[in-house]
Design a protein that fits this description.
This protein is an alpha/beta fold. The chain has three domains: 208 residues, Nitrogenase molybdenum iron protein domain (Rossmann fold), CATH 3.40.50; 134 residues, Nitrogenase molybdenum iron protein domain (Rossmann fold), CATH 3.40.50.1980; 64 residues, no CATH class. Helix content is 46%, strand content 16%. The chain contains 16 helices and 13 strands. Strands 5-4-3-6-7 form a five-stranded parallel sheet, sandwiched between helices. α4 packs parallel to α6. The radius of gyration is 30 Å and the shape is globular. The protein starts with a helix and ends with a helix. The C terminus is likely disordered.
Length: 424
């Protein structure tokens, strides 16, 4: 990991200093594509031409999926709110981010589904500009069409660490964004980690994973097909079966041994439990990215699940349904981070500003309590900030703290004692 971090840091620094020149250098080095800075931006004509290279059925499917995803995320919209009582106005002002960068990974496959699942929540949130970056070889006609249908504002042919660094700092060609979302390989994840603070990020996603909760009634073929669909992502993808049935485990393992198509079956783990309560404990400890519940009465288990990125209920709700079509974003927490984080949503593209207004009378009413708290912390200028506002209002005397009153009282007492002593 130290070697990767060192390499990533070097690339980030070069992009920060050299900008487009560094991007073009690394694009040629890693992607074997020679580009000039003016070729980084995908032109409108290229997008228009992409439509001619995909079939109508794909476009129809994209648009249907888009409607589902938009419909789901519109329910997550947050409204600003205010509460005004007796000279006090408090509230939360919710506003969308201005610019967001969406990273669409390259590699073995092209992912128009990633475009849908990362861009549409941002658009529904009201983000002004959505900037998409992806390795040159990944910008297939299908990906370009998906980006256009989702309303991406600009697309750049740049991937890996240079893309993340460019979005974080900005270059002559690529704009600086407020937040970067979207999955990537270990180098992309490392870059996001290093640049967090300079720019917002969605999450540090690891290898994709599935866990299936099953009992003796579960369909073995469904389990195996869903395992293989998950392992298809890459050799680091993970799968797990949690079940009360030793018979089911043996059956699944026997079937898997017959598979000879290059899947990394060592990434599948089996958890034999004594009952479903123990199964729930295992699931909540593992906090899987995707959880399928294939038990006889799956709905009975639902409310007991505390940690999971997404739950797929019943044998006709495979993870693949969520990958492409159902509605919730498929960008989900991995590596047990579902214990404290959630899948990508409208909330990730909005920020909250607190609003506070007090009238003079309202400040008077709570001033004594504020002064007491500031006094306890020893912050005299904090105390003075309140006192200055109330001087001349007849509140000066009543604003004296206990410490101040005690000090004056002590001085008077000493004077009285001296007087008595003299008279004696």
């Amino acid at each position: 990991m130290d070697k990767i971090e060192k390499e990533v840091k070097k690339i980030i620094e070069e992009v920060k200093i050299k900008g487009d020149k560094a991007i073009c250098f690394y694009t040629q080095k890693f992607d074997k594509v020679k580009l000039r800075p003016e070729r980084l931006l995908v032109k409108k004509k290229e997008i228009k031409d992409a439509y001619k290279q995909v079939d109508e059925g794909f476009i129809t499917a994209l648009k249907k999926a888009k409607l589902n995803i938009e419909s789901f995320h519109k329910r997550q919209r947050i409204k600003s709110w205010y509460n005004d009582e007796k000279g006090i106005l408090l509230g939360d002002i919710w506003q969308p981010l201005e610019k967001v960068g969406v990273y669409i990974p390259g590699g073995k496959y092209a992912y128009p589904s990633c475009v849908l699942m990362n861009v549409l929540p941002a658009k529904v949130a009201g983000v002004s500009q959505v900037i998409m970056v992806s390795p040159p070889g990944n910008l297939t006609p299908a990906v370009l069409v998906a980006a256009d249908i989702c309303g991406v504002d600009r697309i750049y042919r740049v991937g890996g660490v240079p893309a993340i660094a460019a979005l974080a700092y900005g270059t002559d060609t690529l704009p600086r964004v407020d937040k970067i979302v979207g999955p990537g390989n270990i180098y992309v994840t490392c870059a996001k980690k290093m640049l967090f603070g300079e720019v917002g990020i969605d999450m540090l996603a690891g290898p994709s994973e599935i866990m299936i909760l099953a009992d003796q009634s579960s369909n073995c073929d469904y389990i195996i097909s869903d395992f293989l669909a998950q392992l298809e992502h890459d050799r680091n993808a993970k799968a797990g079966l949690v079940t009360t049935s030793a018979y089911l485990i043996k059956k699944v393992q026997t079937q898997l041994r017959k598979i000879k198509n290059g899947f990394n079956l060592k990434q599948i783990n089996f958890f034999k439990v004594k009952d479903l309560n123990e199964a729930i404990k295992v699931i909540n400890q593992e906090a899987p990215e995707h959880l399928e519940i294939l038990t006889k009465n799956p709905e009975k288990m639902l409310l007991k699940i505390k940690n999971a990125g997404a739950i797929f209920l019943g044998e006709y709700s495979p993870v693949v349904l969520g990958d492409y079509f159902a509605g919730p974003s498929h960008t989900l927490p991995t590596g047990k981070t579902a214990r404290f984080s959630s899948g990508l949503s409208v909330y990730d593209f909005m920020k909250r500003t607190s609003l506070i207004f007090y009238s003079k009378e309202a400040l008077k009413k709570c001033s004594r309590d504020i002064l007491k708290l500031a006094e306890m912390e020893g912050l005299k200028e904090h105390m003075n900030s309140v006192k200055e506002r109330l001087i001349g209002s007849g509140e000066e005397i009543s604003l004296k703290t206990k410490q101040e009153k005690g000090g004056n009282g002590g001085q008077n007492k000493n004077k009285k004692s001296s007087k008595n002593k003299k008279s004696n």
